[in-house]
Amino acid sequence: MSNILHQIHGLTRDIGFPVRRLLPAAAARTVGPFVFFDHMGPVEFDAGTTEGDVRPHPHIGLATVTYLFSGAMMHRDSLGVVQRITPGAVNWMASGRGIVHSERIPDDIREQKVPVHGLQMWVALPAEQEESDPLFRHYASEDMPEAQIGGARLHVLAGSAFGVSSPVATASPTLYVAGSTTQGAELEIAADVQERAVYVVRGEVMLDGERMEPGTLAILAPGAAVALKAVGETVFMILGGAPLDGPRFVWWNFVATSREKIEAAKVAWNGRDKNVFPDIPGETEWIPLPAH
Question: CB 3.0-4.6 Å disulfide test: which of 60, 175, 268, 286 passes with 276?
Answer without folding.
Answer: 268
